[in-house]
Write a structure and sequence with these properties.
Helix content is about 35%, strand content about 20%. It has 9 helices and 11 strands. A 7-stranded mixed beta sheet has the order 2-11-10-9-4-5-8, with helices on both faces. A hairpin with a 2-residue loop joins strand 6 (about 110) and strand 7 (about 110-115). The chain starts with a strand and ends with a helix. The mean pLDDT is about 95. The protein binds tricarbonodiimidic diamide. Tricarbonodiimidic diamide binds near residues 39, 171 and 172.
Length: about 230
Amino acid sequence: LPEKVSFSAKPYAFTFPSDATALVVIDMQRDFLLENGFGHIQGGNLTNVQAAIKPTARLLEIWRSFGLPVVHTREGHLADLSDCPSSKLVRQAAAPGNKQHVQVIGDKGPMGRLLVRGEYGHDFVDELQPHESEFVIDKPGKGAFYNTRLMEILQKNGITHLIIGGVTTECCVTTTLREANDRGFECCALTEITDGYNPSYKTASLDMVYWSQGLFGYVGSIDPLIEALK
Ligand code: TIU
């Protein structure tokens, strides 16, 4: 690969150093993507988030073929929930009379205890399992920098630029992108490899990233990136 790779994006081309850029895949876990997972139980529509799996696998395959770094994040909590603030637990408690929203973090679902580390539902979907050499960040919050070693790992590996995907756009993806931007990383989200539970939230979230000459970063597409990597 050339020292610098550039591809068209909004608000203008994203240029990244090929030796200092990581692909960050946020929370592609069964609990957010599959039926009877945490997101589904919360009322999330799975159609769009599931559509992000294939393009993510495609980009990962190409990214890996160049030996470039990959970070996978996983949202979840310790078995005793001591790392889950009450604000997060309470928010997701069932409202009286609300049949849809009946289970909270730590409750037992068909894929194990919801968002609890080590449970089947907490792990990545089969198509997007990390490789041995890749980084896995277990995070208790929406943002991947809060209470994790992500900053240390990126710095240690000389990473300055991030290509970002995952679920959900409106929640953990853009929270992480905003955290990264505050910490000095140049960030580009890719439309096809991120999605959420509400199409209008995805659009608004990504629009907010790049408006005002790239307020938080860039938004691009996988095809121009893949073309630029050839
Ligand atoms: N609730 C929701 O939309 N998402 C999360 O809680 N986590 C992530 O976005 N990964």
